Amino acid sequence: MVSRKDVVFVFGALFWLYFSYANVFLNGWITFFVKMYNVVVNGILDKIGNVNGLQVDEVSDAYDVLIELVTFFNESMGFRVLVEVTVNICWTLGCTYFGWVYWKIGEYGGTVTNLLAAYLAIHTLYIYGNEAENLEQSRMKLVTKLSQIKIHGLNDVESKKVVCLTQKVINCKLLISPGNFFTLNRSFVLSILSVLMTVLIVMAQFRDSDELNGGNKRIPGDWSGNDEMRTCDCCNSTSLLQ
Questions:
Q1: What are the tens digits of pLDDT across the range 78-89?
Q2: Which residue among 193, 235, 237, 241 has its CA within the 20 to 30 Å range from the CA of 212?
Q3: In terms of pTM, does the model score above 0.85?
């Protein structure tokens, strides 16, 4: 016979195995590609030094490849990133709420466990948003560095190449946008946290109001509040019979 404690233990073990997998392997697997794109942009930044026609062509070709890679990542991995973001939002909301419930009933072990799980889910979301934000910031650095190139000392062909490359980097952003549902960055993660805190406050208020209303309700036929009066009536009735 399987006891309730065994079931809780199995689900708890699966729960922590998933979070360990998500935070150790899945984070590294998904963010690996974004980190590689960021390395390419940083390599382009290092290559823009003494500008000449050959280097501008190489940088332009490398940025074209980078645009294609980011687009392919959004199309192929976008659904996976969307699922992971949704799952971590649900874990954060649920674990924080149940951690608060456990704290209300005095189960501090359950409180710590749920809050730790909520922290891991938030940390996962932050890693996704942080890596995507770093890629976009590297692109902005590239725009700044291209804008600082003095094209007056270049010939007409090289000047046009620099201007075209600058316009390309400005217009073709390196955004991680899973399925074009949202743009993944730190601002998106912070907006998720603010919405989750609002939802948790509302849920806590509803729970408190339900507990308050439930405590004030009296069940019909329940005379528990008049136990002392009934005891006195019984004593009086007994004395009269004697």
A1: 888 888 888 888
A2: 193
A3: no
